[in-house]
Amino acid sequence: GTQSEDGSRFVERILTAVMSLRKQERNVLDALTASLEAHLHGTPAPSLLPGT
């Protein structure tokens, strides 16, 4: 488990993203990496919605 509300929220969000990506048969590591790179560069994160 996590030790804080923030930690629990982070886990919820990551697991939701992982499940959405798997349902769409998208590469989870590639998608999460792209999201982190976008955050670091101050650009919009890639969409988790299908076909976008």
Describe this structure in words.
- It is a single chain.
- With 52 residues, the chain is an all-alpha fold.
- It has one domain (5-41).
- It is 63% helix and 0% strand.
- The protein has helices at 5-23, 28-41.
- The protein is globular and about 35 Å long.
- The termini are far apart.
- The mean pLDDT is 94.
Q: What keyword list fits this structure?
A:
52 residues, mainly alpha, 2 helices
Task: Please describe the topology of this protein.
Layout: H1 5-23, H2 28-41
Count of all domains: 1
Q: Please write the string of helix (H) and strand (E) elements.
A: HH
Q: How would a crystallographer describe the biggest sheet?
A: none
Kindly state the number of beta strands.
0
Task: Write a short abstract of this structure.
The chain contains two helices and no strands. With 52 residues, it is mainly α. The longest helix has 19 residues.
